[in-house]
VanYB protein (Weissella cibaria), 261 residues
Amino acid sequence: MKLGATVGIGVVVIGLVAGGLVYAHQQHPTTSITKSSQHTSKQTKSATTKPYPVQVKAGSTEATTLMVVNKKHPLPADYNPYNGGLSPKTNQAKDELISAMKAAGFNVGDTVSGYRAYDYQKTLYDGYVAGQGQAAADSVSARPGYSEHQTGLAFDLRSSTGGLFAEGGSDPDAAQWLQDNAYKYGLIVRYPEDLTTSTGYDHEEWHMRYVGKRAAAVITKYHLSLEQYTGNAGGDYNKSKSADIPALEEYSATYKDRLTK
Ligand SMILES: [Zn+2]
């Protein structure tokens, strides 16, 4: 039985290597499922049919909309593309979402916490560090330059009485409604409870991110992080800043490599 198993594994390995060679010759993922590759492993086939990482054209509006800013991809201090506010599409999506939430009976306020400038984030973060130390500060506040709020594509919902919306499981029905319905407005819940390893952030029921309707539908259907959808690294801060890849370079360079025709 052991011998048989060994032979079986050998056949599988050879099959995988052969499959890998076929796959390696196919430069373009969308053409990789051909008759000659039908015998490749199930794993290889599913990898080529996944709707992610997404392929978008470098420099396109969609690439900008899908920009990833996280603990490994910072923005420059002067990044402020929408004059201190949200992008027009993010703002429209926010208004539509809040209207829908009210219609569904949720206790949501009209004002959000949207764009945050680098200097403002620095003040917030430095305050946490002074009060609690850096490790504790990192668990509750982004370092300046690493906050998605600086993109103008993200905002925090508030309850009508002022606090963060559905914070800390205070309204699980509302949190679930957002998970299920935000995509209709081109939005996603950016930091879901079970994707913290990928995003680098604890669950934030209230933090919404605009990605456009096409991306939001796929991200919601397959329950992905934005990192998984775009193929960008996530998780905690790099030990050294020199390992960071600036967000503005990452989305253009990475997406350029994945350029579709
Ligand atoms: Zn937020």
About this structure: The CA atoms of residues 77 and 118 lie 5 Å apart. Residues 2-25 form the longest helix (24 residues). Residues 2-48 form one domain. The mean pLDDT is 82.
